[in-house]
Amino acid sequence: MTASIIPSYSILAETVTELRQKSSSLNDEIKKLDEEIKIINKKLLTTGDEKQTLSNELGKIETTRKKLMTELSLTSTKIKKTNVNLAQLQNDIGIKTQDIEQNKISIAEAIRNLRQSEFSNLLEIFLGENKLSDFFIQTENLDKLQANLDDQVLSLKQNKDILEVKKTTTETEKKKLGDLKNQLAGQKQVTEAIKKEKDQLLTETENKESNYQNLLKERIAQKKAFDEEMQSIEQNIKFLIDPESFPVAKKGIFSWPLDTIRITQEFGGTQFAKNNSGIYGRPYHPGVDFGTQSGSKVKSIASGIVKGFDNTDAYPGCYAWGKWILVEHDNGLSSLYAHLSVISVQKGQRVTGGQLIGFSGSTGVSTGPHLHLGLYASQGVKITKYGYYRPGSKGCAATNASGPFADTDAYLNPLDYLPKP
């Protein structure tokens, strides 16, 4: 019965050859797409430093769209490659299972032969042989039989060990496949968001530079108003924060949230920063901004639980974080990821350090694509409706939009905990 479900060696060998050829071809395709993305990234870095004009902004959006389409192809190719890896592993498992079954048959045969030999003791063998040389041949054959049994047992153990490794590797590849499929789904959403962003920009500006500049000024004013309102609200929030509940600042406690690091605005939430606003360019910036194109993979800086998320853009008149995620880490600290284009996690979900949680964007009050990373002592931050702290009939307070609110003493500088640049 076992033999009927295990492919023969000849079929397996032929399949392995085909899979190796596919794997090699897909590797070449992955390298090619990686090179294309590098070239587009260089172009985006160049255009990122250009003056903010409607023409330049539309150019950046179009280049970003091309990059996202290439990344979609790359992820799809990686999914194919992972499926090939899984097929190869299944073949390897089939071969090893076959080897194990063969070992079992050989061991059983060797044991039967040994047991048959036990019916006649050495003295009977000696007396039954006409020549002394025949006796030694019989005993030598018995020793060989025992040695063969030892070899078969060792081979069985080795094959079982290899099989366990293959099965573990298969589980790893399956997880990788699941992660890639989630990534692909997110990238498709980003591509759709980029198209909507371009269409909306053309609608709002009527393709006129003067209208774009007015829109840019309006966004800057909204951003300033949001920062000032948050600062005003949070100055009156007082939470009990145990300084022993989170680690002392140390480089490398967390990992970077992006693959490519370009800091465009540093943290400015300390008392020193408030009294010396010229150092940070403004009196209060509760986090670190990273310049990046829309659609960059955003990763959790450490293991933790997703405490919540929201999209303030879904509430008309609410100018705030846009799409944001708050993760509470295991060490008493919590991190905020804001202005995302796509959220790829669920509330209450457990995430690991380096795990994809979303994609960067320019949602909320933002003058361009970037990631805002905030860091808090967990005891000092809570997710609350905007209207809870400042009831009103305008803006976010007039909606059901929610966001993270913190005691000003809960804010920490993410760069103190992240690796050295």
Could you please describe the fold and organization of this structure?
This protein is α+β, with helices and mostly antiparallel strands. It folds into two domains: about 180 residues, no CATH class; about 210 residues, Glucose Permease (Domain IIA) (Distorted Sandwich). The chain is about 55% helix and about 15% strand. Strands 1, 2, 3, 4, 5, 6, 7, 8, 9 and 12 form a ten-stranded antiparallel sheet that branches. The protein has a two-stranded antiparallel ribbon with strand order 10-11. α2 runs antiparallel to α3 and α4 packs across α5. The two termini are about 60 Å apart. The N terminus is likely disordered.
Features:
421 residues; 10-stranded antiparallel β-sheet; 12 strands; elongated
Radius of gyration: 32 Å
**CATH-level-2 architecture of the largest domain:** Distorted Sandwich
Give the terminus-to-terminus CA distance: 60 Å
Major sheet details = 10 strands, antiparallel
Which percent range describes the beta-strand content?
Answer: 5-15%
As residue ranges, the low-confidence spans are 1-11, 276-282
The beta-strand count equals 12
Count the helices. How many? 9
The CATH homologous superfamily of the largest domain corresponds to Glucose Permease (Domain IIA)
